[in-house]
Amino acid sequence: MNMDTPARPRTRIQSEKRYIILEAALEIFSANGFRGATIDQIADAAGMSKPNLLYYFRRKEDIHEALMQRLLDTWLAPLRELDDVGDPMTELRSYIRRKLEMARDYPRESRLFANEILQGAPRIMPLIEGELKTLVDEKASIIRGWMRTGKITQTDPHHLIFSIWATTQHYADFDTQVRAVLGPDRGSDGRFEDAARFLESLFMNGLMPR
Fold first, then answer.
1. To pair with 150 at 20 to 30 A between CA atoms, which of 10, 144, 157, 197?
2. What pLDDT, in 10s, does the model give residues 6-60?
3. pTM of the entire predicted model
4. If you write DSSP's letter for every residue of 15-56 in order, what string do you get?
């Protein structure tokens, strides 16, 4: 076989089947973790037989890898949009908003990522040490540039990014706790807007040049 022959593009049906499998796997992995999830559970959730699923993914590890790559692409999209051309306060405020929107719209993905990190990231460490670190270092350099020109106060740019991650992702990973503590009057969908206003005030006041 000619090893230089390019892989055939997936058909529409193949792409749809892979999407169904990955959506089912997201539900199973986010609920049970990698170790607790099985191929049989994923196949049942996808509404297909185990042999049919194994036609698209040979191993549980392959499903998880594809899911984590898709997740990381989604997770890093807001950070990629942080632009050195824009006004720093506007850029950072928008980043906080986008991260909260992800906490609201992608809670399963957030739990899956958190579970993987809590286990020591055994299956995604190359992604963290590679793509993720490169992007964070790049954006930290932009933030450091804003500090040099006096547009925002001096601080550690990496820990600033970590703090935004921690405060925004809390509303996905601990949403049950947030809703319970806020109670029925404040624990509805408006909690994300309340959180956005609070976090914007917290970070913007802290970063305002003195």
1. 197
2. 455 668 888 899 999 999 999 999 888 888 999 999 999 999 999 999 999 999 9
3. 0.83
4. HHHHHHHHHHHHHHHHHHHHHH--HHHHHHHHTS-HHHHHHH
